[in-house]
Amino acid sequence: MSVREDPQAQPVRPTAEDPVAAAGSELIGGPTGRRALLGTSWWTPVRIVAIVAIGMFALGMVQKLPCYDGGWFYGATAQYTHACYSDIPHLYNGRGFALDLVPYFDRIPDNVSGGMQYLEYPVLTGLFMEVASWMTPHGGSIQDREQIYWLVNAGMLMVCTAVIAVCVARTHRRRPWDALLVALAPPSRSRPPSTGTCSPSPLRPPPC
């Protein structure tokens, strides 16, 4: 007695439904055949989605190199002309994290913040920034510490990006590949890691 596989239980094959995916698959051997053994490889859709998300985020970090190497610290326009601005290194010192001040509880000295008495970001964002400051070494120059603080934030945000992509991939059991729309989204590589805000700061002109 033969047992038929329930087509509703099988993952949807993108190359069978999406002409763009089918055309792109020609670079790696063509569309999936009907006799292909699915689910037998270590390279599951969820793992591929997570790796793609991490790779795209890493590209965004590379895009920040002109600022990491000096644009955040020297000159007034380099971080804008290279489109690599980020609030994170500026806020490390400017919002009291370098002084071990507790967000929302400790008042920031005016000579540090330029007049902003308390952290102006939402509480969960402030908690995220505070945890990153705990993992930032306190030795070395303030520039070195701001660079490390940015890297720590980047690592934490990369983990968040991978988790989001995996969660989306698991939302629909038969359509895990749809999560590539999240993993490949331009924001994954164009703005990490930044606060994503255009609010003016007394430390720097607004980035928008």
How would you characterize the overall build of this protein?
By secondary structure, the chain is mainly α. The chain has helices spanning 14-17, 19-24, 45-63, 65-71, 78-81, 87-94, 110-113, 123-134, 142-169, 180-183, 187-190. Keywords: Membrane, Transmembrane, Transmembrane helix.
Q: Could you provide a short overview of the structure?
A:
The chain is mainly alpha-helical and 208 residues long. Helix content is 48%, strand content 0%.
What do the pLDDT scores average to?
Answer: 82
Task: Give the proportion of residues in helices.
Answer: 40-55%
Number of domains: 1
Radius of gyration equals 22 Å
Which regions are unreliable across 5 or more consecutive residues at pLDDT < 50?
196-208
Q: What is the terminal separation in angstroms?
A: 67 Å
Shape: elongated
Give me the secondary-structure category: mainly alpha
> What is the string of helix and strand elements?
HHHHHHHHHHH
The largest sheet is: none
Q: How much of the residues is beta strand, in percent?
A: under 5%
The multimeric state of the shown protein is: single chain
Instruction: Supply the number of helical segments.
Output: 11
Number of E-state strands: 0
What attributes characterize this protein structure?
single chain, 208 residues, mainly alpha, 11 helices
Topology, please?
Blueprint lengths: L13 H4 L1 H6 L20 H19 L1 H7 L6 H4 L5 H8 L15 H4 L9 H12 L7 H28 L10 H4 L3 H4 L18
